[in-house]
Specification:
- Helices cover 71% and strands 0% of the residues.
- The protein has helices at residues 6-13, 19-42, 51-60, 62-67, 72-84, 86-96, 105-122.
- The model has no long low-confidence stretch (mean pLDDT 88).
Length: 126
């Protein structure tokens, strides 16, 4: 199972983001892929996907089942990761004027770079 393609990893790696922010970008890119798949299978917009739909997708996805022992703890954890990625994806969508399902990887990365820059600029000087 490939969470990100080598090209996607390279795009993230060439940023000047911290390791923590790079992890968040990778997670958001993977979550976007999962959310798009769920959206298509259920004929609903990404913004309307519920935690229950994510959990159902995890339970049915053969790639996940083959690679990871899925128990209730993992399913809940993974569902929360995917759903929590909706917040930055929704903000990126609003900022670009592009529906979440049409966001590109560069747009997702750009959102995280902008967010990291804002956090640095607004951090209290100690």
């Amino acid at each position: 199972m490939e969470f990100l393609t080598p090209a996607e990893c390279a795009e993230v790696d060439k940023t000047l983001l911290s390791s923590r922010d790079k992890f968040s970008v990778r997670l958001a890119i993977y979550a976007l892929r999962v959310l798009k798949e769920i959206s298509q299978k259920n004929a609903v917009p990404v913004r309307q996907i519920t935690p229950q739909k994510v959990a159902e997708w995890i339970a049915k996805d053969e790639k996940i089942q083959e690679q990871i022992e899925v128990d209730a703890n993992f399913a809940g954890f993974f569902t929360n990761l995917v759903i929590s990625s909706l917040r930055p994806l929704n903000v990126a969508s609003e900022e670009t004027g592009v529906p979440v399902e049409n966001l590109t990887i560069p747009q997702v990365i750009n959102y995280f770079e902008k967010d990291a820059k804002n956090r640095l600029e607004n951090a209290p000087n100690t």
